[in-house]
Design brief:
The chain is mostly helical and 394 residues long. The chain has one domain (22-38, 51-191, 227-393). It has helices at 3-11, 14-34, 44-64, 67-90, 117-139, 145-167, 172-188, 193-216, 218-223, 228-238, 249-260, 283-316, 320-344, 362-393; strands spanning 98-101, 104-110, 113-115. The longest helix has 34 residues, at 283-316.
Length: 394
């Protein structure tokens, strides 16, 4: 093995690669079983393999560039993401270039399949926010309440532009992911708790008030512009059996499937409960029914392992920009996992968020590959700087 190969072997994150390969194996097993329900006449397993191969190419390409190059590309990529969201809004569906699913106009139609730009915008947003925060701290090295308010204002402007377009699609699930990323980076950025706590308290109060009004003051909310179908989501979440023929159907079948798996599950291809879209957003129901509590717990532990490893990598980095990027990616993946699994067990309302690396879907996999590629890059090139410094000292 020559010196270049040895250097690559030392710098490459083999643990993260192994974790992703494990997700690939679990995903293919779950999807191959999910499609036995006969919902579609398509074999999604080779398609998922195709998306994973494309994802691997994206990871390799993204890993090639150094963190300093991503600093330069942060705002252009953010602008490109906004451009895609604008085009999605402007191009009519009649052209065949855009696609509406379940009332949400969130996809472009391409030769390789439907692409959802918001999945890529999440990572572009993380890059822009990481650059913004790191540059702010360079400019204002002495932290005060005033400088924290200035930073919070910059973050709010950066958030509201993509959030506005995503809400018009409408795509509540993606909007919540953007809010989760923002909340995590606001905390990591070191903004004073004297500012964060009142905002958090106000958010909880407003959210609680809206939930109460959705239950008891629907007419008032409709005057404010809310649609009745939005209330139905809340009702079906809190009491799905009263809406079993429509909005609550998904949740009831999900609970029946996971509950029927009991401790050890029914075995591979042993499913009996029909769950719609069980190869995409409801892939966890397949795992819960066939592999039981034990298998589902192992999958959750795999996610804990992934998040733990990403956190270790983040703590290893010394460059603030790289640290913020990794923190944003951790927040994005964590929220996806918590929301997706939570909605299948009635812990959270159903929002249509896929389970990272397991659910079938090209946009989700490519978007996550883009994000994970950044982590590979930060780790790979960080080790390069360390070795180069060590060699200079020798």
């Amino acid at each position: 093995m020559n010196n270049n190969n040895r250097q690559f072997a030392k710098r490459f994150d083999w643990t993260l690669a192994l974790i992703l390969l494990t997700f690939l194996a679990v995903s293919l097993l779950a999807i191959s079983s999910a499609q036995t329900s006969g919902q579609y006449g398509i074999n999604f397993v080779p398609l998922q393999i195709r998306w994973y191969v494309i994802g691997a190419v994206i990871v390799a390409f993204v890993m090639y560039f150094e963190p300093d190059q991503y600093k330069k590309m942060a705002w252009p990529l953010y602008g490109f993401g906004i451009f895609l969201l604008i085009m999605l809004f402007l191009i009519p569906e009649s052209t065949g270039l855009t696609k509406e699913v379940n009332g949400a106009k969130s996809w472009f139609e391409t030769p390789v399949g439907s692409i959802q730009p918001s999945e890529f915008m999440k990572t572009f947003y993380i890059l822009a926010l990481a650059y913004l925060i790191s540059k702010h701290h360079e400019k204002y090295q002495l932290k005060t309440i005033k400088t924290d308010f200035i930073l919070l204002g910059k973050i709010a402007v950066t958030l509201f532009v993509p959030l506005g377009f995503i809400m018009t699609q409408p795509d509540l699930g993606s909007a919540l992911v953007f809010l989760a990323i923002t909340a995590a980076l606001v905390i990591v950025a070191g903004i004073s708790w004297k500012i964060i706590l009142p905002i958090l308290g106000g958010t909880v109060f407003i959210g609680g008030s809206l939930l109460w009004m959705a239950l008891y003051m629907q007419d008032f909310l409709q005057k404010l512009g809310f649609n009745p179908y939005q209330f139905a989501r809340i009702y079906s979440w809190l009491d799905p059996y009263s809406y079993s023929s429509n909005e609550g159907y998904h949740l009831i079948t999900s609970l029946n499937a996971i509950g029927s798996g009991e401790i050890f599950g029914k075995g591979m291809f042993g499913r009996e409960v029909y769950v719609a879209e069980n190869h995409t957003d409801f892939i966890f129901t397949v795992i819960g029914e066939e592999w039981g509590f034990v298998g589902a717990s192992m999958v959750i532990c795999l996610y804990f392992l992934l998040i733990y490893h990403l956190t270790k990598t983040t703590l290893l980095l010394k460059d603030p920009f790289s640290t913020y990027v990794c923190a944003g990616i951790i927040a994005m993946i964590t929220f996806h996992v918590f929301e997706n699994i939570g909605m299948t067990i009635q812990l959270l309302p159903i929002t249509g968020i896929p389970l990272p690396f397991l659910s079938y879907g090209g946009s989700s996999l490519m978007g996550n590959a883009l994000a994970i590629g950044l982590v590979f890059s930060m780790r790979f090139h960080y080790r390069t700087y360390m070795f180069s410094t060590h060699d200079d000292e020798d």
